[in-house]
Amino acid sequence: MAPDTASQQGTLVSHLDRLLSSREYPKTICPSEVPRALSAAELRTIGVADWRDLMPEVREMLQDRRRRGQVEILQKGLLVPDDVNVCDLKGPIRARKVEEWTATKAVV
Q1: Where are the domains of the chain?
Q2: What is the pLDDT along the chain (108 residues), one digit of tens a residue?
Q3: CB 69: neighbour CB atoms within 10 A?
Q4: Which segments of the chain does DSSP mark as H helices, in order?
Q5: In terms of domain of life, where is this protein from (predicted)?
Q6: pTM for the complete prediction?
Q7: Cα–Cα distances in Å, from 39 out to 9, 28, 95, 106?
């Protein structure tokens, strides 16, 4: 089965939003929590065999959200500078919603 890009994106966005919303600033999520939250049926629907196959897409989503000022990326407990692309980072990272974005989203 070929991956359905729109379905994949929508499913990942839904899980990312839910996880970020469930943590109050300054609590973080591990990016791997997003694809690991998918059920076996969701993985089959979007055409991947293993949640690890979705990690590059999750990192791209986090990079995009960071660019829009919605999340911060941390590595070893320190903020990753904005000029470093999340997709280029080696090793574990954490993500958290930006404090100001939290307040703005709650008002909407």
Answers
A1: 5-107
A2: 345 678 788 999 999 999 999 999 999 999 999 999 999 999 999 899 999 999 999 999 999 999 999 999 999 999 999 999 999 999 999 999 999 755 555 544
A3: 12
A4: 5-21, 33-36, 40-45, 55-67, 99-107
A5: Eukaryota
A6: 0.86
A7: 15, 22, 22, 28
